[in-house]
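We treat protein structure as text, and this decision shapes the records that our systems exchange. We quote a single record here, exactly as it is kept in our systems:
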Amino acid sequence: MNHKTALILEGGAMRGLYSAGVLDVFMRNNISVDVIYGVSAGALFGLNYKSRQIGRAIRYNLKYAHEKNYMGLYSLITTGDVMNRDFCFNKLVYELDRLDFETYKNNPVEFYAVVTNLQTGKPEYIKIDDAEKDLEYFRASGSMPFVSKPVEVNGNLYLDGAISDAVPFKKALKEDYEKIIVVLTKPMGFNRKKKSLMPYKLFYGKFPNFVETGSNSYKKYNETMNLIEKYEKENKIVVLRPSKLIKMQRVEKDTNKLQAVYDLGVSDSMKKLYEIKEFLNIRAESF
């Protein structure tokens, strides 16, 4: 039996601030896990758990939401990437709101960023022990299709991990972790709709495996949600998901909405704090 506790963080662009709220509650209440699987925004915001930087994700997103060089149309037009590489993975992490690379490296929590390989169309689960050395994997995990250039790492081309495995619950089951906590960024009952093959063929015709994966990603997602709900009903896992829908754009600029989705993550996880601690067998004295 593997006695590790795994935490799975779904992506969802700026909806990922829900997970940031959850993780800040975890850190403030000494909720510890052994392994994290972060997908897309789940990886980009989730790394702050390993670097132990409470409040960092919401802080810089509120501060730079209207900065044209952060992310959005201006960055897409001028660089080909909706998420500006130089701003997000240079200025931000080194100067404006420095990522604590040293704490990340020394924290024993195992962190896996999920990426999608363009050639194979398959997910890859990249273990990142040194965030500074492997920042490009984080960038690849969060590089949304159609609005991002493929990220090349070690001769391989990657895009958003959510295309091939948006919520790697089956991966966690396969690894036989004793406890699994899943943080979703969409409310109960959300299902993805069937996607048209045409955009994928137009943009990624040279990568037929990726085209197939992308056009069928909705099936895998919906199957995974059904499986998660089954395990949740059987009290085998703990699931955190938004208790209400906050409508927002993938690249949201409204700071009120950003704060609201973060606050929802905080309040939802606080309401389930007792359940989470019981699930993880944390002693009552620490409640």
Summary: The mean pLDDT is 95. The longest strand covers residues 2-9. DSSP finds 14 helices and eight strands in the chain.
